[in-house]
């Protein structure tokens, strides 16, 4: 079984955290909603208000200004370094750890005995498809490691979609430097001497 590990924030990751898929999904949902789902609002907060004070002529009718205002590059970089990438790193670390748990043997599986009994019962079953065409059906319980692996695969796909969308919005508002989110996150990890998860 995989040993517990610590996140950069000091929180302990345990196999029980991963096997509690509701808790795992809640963590991912809250993390995504606080950063990625509100990326436009987060970036709007970086726009520096006018320093010249109130100008009464600014309320007169004129051509609408573009919705996607460019943001100060240093504010954008600070947001990426201090908020966006650490959030992505935390989620990556949780998903990587849980993927490791899902591929490790699980000696504490509470349903192992039940599955074994079901398999034994299935071996003893007499199948006569002429009398009952559905008698050959047997749907064994899936081990919780396989259930977790399925959840992790799905969440990694969601994470990829969300990060691509978020990075596109960041590129529009901050100016794109041509890197993908994978490249930018990888460079940030190298600069911080973090593992390339």
From TrEMBL:
Residues 49-70 are annotated as: Disordered. It comes from the Eukaryota. GO terms for cellular component: mitochondrial intermembrane space. Signal peptide: none annotated. InterPro entries: MIX23, MIX23_fungal. Belongs to the MIX23 family. This is Caffeine-induced death protein 2. It comes from Pseudoneurospora amorphoporcata.
């Amino acid at each position: 079984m995989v040993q517990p590990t610590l996140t950069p924030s000091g929180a302990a990751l345990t196999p029980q955290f991963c096997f509690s898929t509701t808790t795992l999904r809640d963590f991912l949902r809250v993390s995504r909603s606080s950063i990625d789902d509100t990326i436009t609002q987060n970036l709007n907060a970086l726009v520096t208000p006018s320093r010249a004070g109130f100008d009464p002529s600014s309320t007169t009718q004129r051509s609408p200004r573009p919705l996607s205002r460019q943001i100060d590059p240093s504010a954008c970089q600070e947001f990426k370094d201090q908020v966006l990438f650490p959030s992505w790193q935390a989620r990556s670390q949780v998903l990587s750890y849980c993927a490791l748990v899902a591929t490790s043997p699980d000696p504490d599986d509470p349903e192992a005995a039940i599955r074994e009994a079901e398999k034994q019962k299935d071996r003893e079953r007499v199948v006569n498809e002429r009398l009952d065409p559905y008698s050959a059906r047997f749907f064994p319980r899936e081990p919780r490691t396989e259930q977790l692996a399925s959840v992790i695969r799905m969440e990694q796909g969601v994470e990829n979609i969300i990060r691509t969308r978020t990075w596109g919005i960041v590129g529009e508002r901050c100016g794109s430097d041509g890197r993908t989110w994978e490249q930018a996150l990888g460079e940030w990890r190298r600069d911080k001497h973090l593992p390339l998860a």
